[in-house]
# Entry
Amino acid sequence: MERPTEGCCGTCGWLAKSVRAGGSAPRPIYAVYDEAEEYYREHPNDGLTFVPVGYPTAVQCELTCFVRAANLFQEARHQGEGSGSPGEPAWLAVIWRDRHCPRWSRWQLGVPPRDQVALENQRHLEEDRRQFQLQLNAFSQQQQEHQRHADRRLALAAVTLAVIIGVVQLTAAILAMTPDAVGCQLVKNLVGWTGALSWLTCK
# Structure
């Protein structure tokens, strides 16, 4: 049977070895969440022991979810009801079930769950930084496009204004001419030629 690579506890960094309450430990160590190495993922059962970090002796443990996305012990017990105990087959079914867990985070060898929190925060910060950079780039491109449009509108307005000023100046110069000026005679001749041309065209 092919095992899933994502969404299951067997490949998740939140899978942890925790001291079983009321087990072989002389006092409960509820705060212990050591890394679940490959052996524990491949051979999970109800009789696991380990030596917690900073603890002098081996104690009975169980596999647990550090972020409490699932109660693995209850699931294994329910899975093993037919055989009478949550043995290795029941635990394997629970650990390697493709549960499509939304809290799943890829396990990295040598990284205990508490350090996995720091890695997750780093990933989130990097993703937030990347999204911010994308938004900043999009905003910058939008501003540049707006600036190009504004420059084009300003250039068109400048050309239009120059044409209007030129027409006004030309009109003023024509109106300022005396009737016997060469320019005035030229304008009259031009108007006359235009009228004659229009008359010939209409004919």
Residues 113-175 form the longest helix (63 residues).
